[in-house]
Amino acid sequence: MNWSDKHVGFALSGSHCTFAEVMPQIQQFVDAGSKVTPIISNTLKTTDTRFGTAEDWRKQLKDIAGNDIISTIVDAEPLGPTKLLDVLVIAPCTGNTTSKLANALTDNAVLMAAKAQMRNQRPLVIGISTNDGLGLNAANIAKLLAMKHIYFVPFGQDSPEGKPNSLVARMELIFETCEHALQGKQLQPLIIEKFKYIG
Questions:
Q1: What confidence category does residue 193 fall into, taking pLDDT thresholds of 50, 70 and 90?
Q2: Pairing state of beta strands 124-130 and 167-169?
Q3: What residues does 9 pair with on adjacent strands?
Q4: Pairing relation of β-strands 87-93 and 35-40?
Q5: For the chain, where do the domains classified as CATH 3.40.50.1950 start and end?
Q6: How far is C-alpha 56 from the chain's CA centre?
Q7: What global pTM score does this model have?
Q8: Residue 196: its pLDDT value, please?
Q9: Under CATH, which number does the domain 72-199 receive?
């Protein structure tokens, strides 16, 4: 696939422990020649954690993408009428974002971008990272799995013993998932081994 004529939206919500895993995946799109527009949630915009400061993550994201970050609903809204993005990735996609997306709530730039992408019936790729994927959020994941134009980065349990409800996408498959999504296909297998159990 020729990525040089593709415009990729890459949105991040607040699973701070996953940011380091996601940044190289954004670089992969840039290296392939795509234009990348970064989009962030309010959490990434404002919250410092033990995994790094919001300012440092925003700087790294802007440096990789080479484009300004969309961080408000107002700035994300034009993505709909302009049909700017060929594919939109949300990774990491937290349980909070998953829940809101599945229930048509739009209260930040990431969700507005997703709403715009679905309006245009263009691929939306989700890389989940949620502690309750096999808990209360299982119903929301199921709703999104059943929707047209939404594709999931293959995912599995990341900590079956410590966090048995937790699901995390294999982020290194984001690029390949997007290639399939642009052809209207879900990358298979969808449910994969994220955690290697050694008995």
A1: confident
A2: antiparallel
A3: 37, 88
A4: unpaired
A5: 72-199
A6: 19
A7: 0.95
A8: 57
A9: 3.40.50.1950
